[in-house]
Design goal:
The chain is built from eleven helices and 16 strands. With about 400 residues, it is α/β, with parallel strands linked by helices. The protein has three domains: about 100 residues, Nucleic acid-binding proteins (OB fold (Dihydrolipoamide Acetyltransferase, E2P)); about 150 residues, Hypothetical protein af1403, domain 2 (Rossmann fold, 3-Layer(aba) Sandwich); about 50 residues, no CATH class.
């Protein structure tokens, strides 16, 4: 068996890999991790899947030719050759071309969620809330740093400095951004902090704008009782939050213009309203003056009084007719009630009952109603419809005074 030094064996392995033409031009797809752009311009990263990981390097001359920089969690396809880094005996890929395969996955998720929310009515015009005519407070949810918040503040201050701006800082990129943005919307609604909400961030790639395509944020925008303006990305960027929001602004600056009605327009509107009120008041006063002049004339006053008297007479006649009709109706109802009572009285009359063959039993001129009133050999009166009998109690059947008697 031949013995090799470490350098010799690594060189041999490197030669074997280099000799394999299938490894000189391969495409590897995986998830990016440990991505670092060195000060030299070289790009170092790893590609991994569920079972394995391979280190990758892209030299600066090739980095200058790619149109994006990979980030952790991104799915890409890397083209290049497999080689052995002899110094550490590490197998790695020397990449020359990178393609973002994650774009296709994200587009698929985007379209699937778009169809789902559309079917649930999230985009219906009927649920869109109009913006208030006069806005006093605006809550802005965005990153506290960067150009977006400054553009919004400058635009509102320039157009209408009376509008109060409430900054609600939140992450606008990354895996936790969607939940943070949704929480800000819920908090503003819970405490009723503003008249309208602006959800904003600058432009970026699909991956960078992805928090605005998550269902968690879409649910929060849909549930908001306050109007929400979505101002995400550039004019050509469309996110799920744009469709769910009550208003979509092409840019954050455009959103600021929507909520900042120019102060000079307010003043012009107030002047116009003041003029209309003054004109209406003048016309009303003049109309009363003319009416007063007419009333001062004797003939006109007499005519007005006669007209009023005629009107009152007509009303009185109508009331009399209504009163007579009401009285007649009530009289008929009382007659019917009286007839019903008479029928019930006759049905319960003692004479009528006795005429049917029934009898009354009295003892000492008192109606016998229960057996406790009876005593043996007590005289009783039995009263029929046309005659009465004198009798004596000779038997009492049933329980009485706690004792049971059998007669």
């Amino acid at each position: 068996m031949e013995t090799y030094s470490v350098s010799q064996i690594t060189k041999k392995i490197s030669c074997l890999i280099s000799a394999d033409t299938t490894l000189s031009g391969v495409a590897i797809e995986g998830e990016v991790s440990n991505c670092t752009l060195h000060s030299s311009g070289h790009l170092y990263f790893s590609l991994k899947d569920e079972k394995a990981k391979i280190n990758c390097i892209m030299f600066s001359r090739d980095v200058r030719n790619i149109d994006f920089l990979p980030e952790a969690g991104m799915h890409i396809i890397a083209y290049g050759r497999v080689m052995l880094y002899e110094k550490t005996s590490t197998c790695q890929l020397q990449a020359t071309v990178l393609i973002s395969s994650g774009m296709g996955i994200l587009h698929e998720k985007y379209n699937r969620l778009l169809k789902q929310l559309e079917a649930q009515g999230y985009f219906d015009k009927e649920v869109k809330k109009p913006l208030p005519t006069y806005i006093k407070k605006v809550a802005v949810i965005t990153s506290p740093t960067g150009a977006v918040i400054h553009d919004i503040i400058n635009t509102i201050r320039r157009r209408n400095p009376t509008v109060q701006i409430i900054l609600c800082p939140a992450a606008v990129q990354g895996s936790a951004a969607s939940g943070e943005l949704a929480e800000r919307i819920a908090r503003i609604n819970r405490h009723n902090l503003a008249d309208v909400i602006i959800l904003a961030r600058g432009g970026g790639s699909l991956e960078e704008l992805w928090p605005f395509n998550e269902k968690e944020l879409a649910d929060a925008v849909y549930a908001s009782t306050l109007p929400v303006i979505s101002a995400v990305g550039h004019e050509t960027d469309f996110t799920i939050s744009d469709f769910v929001a009550d208003v979509r602004a092409a840019t954050p600056t455009a959103a600021a213009e929507l909520v900042s009605f120019p102060l000079e327009h307010y003043l012009a509107h107030l002047s116009a309203q003041r003029l209309r009120i003054a004109q209406a008041t003048t016309l009303r006063i003049e109309a009363y003056r003319q009416r007063l002049k007419v009333l001062k004339r004797p003939a006109a006053l007499t005519q007005m009084l006669a007209k009023n008297i005629t009107g009152h007479r007509s009303n009185l006649t109508t009331l009399r007719k209504q009163l007579a009709k009401t009285a007649e109706t009530m009289l008929i109802m009382h007659r019917m009630q009286l007839a019903n009572l008479q029928i019930r009285l006759e049905a319960n009359d003692v004479s009528s009952t006795l005429a049917k063959g029934y009898a009354l039993v009295k003892i000492k001129d008192k109606l016998l109603q229960n057996k406790e009133q009876a005593a043996l050999h007590e005289p009783i009166d039995v009263i029929f419809d046309t005659f009465r009998l004198k009798a004596e109690i000779v038997e009492i059947k049933g329980e009485t005074y706690g004792e049971k008697q059998n007669i």
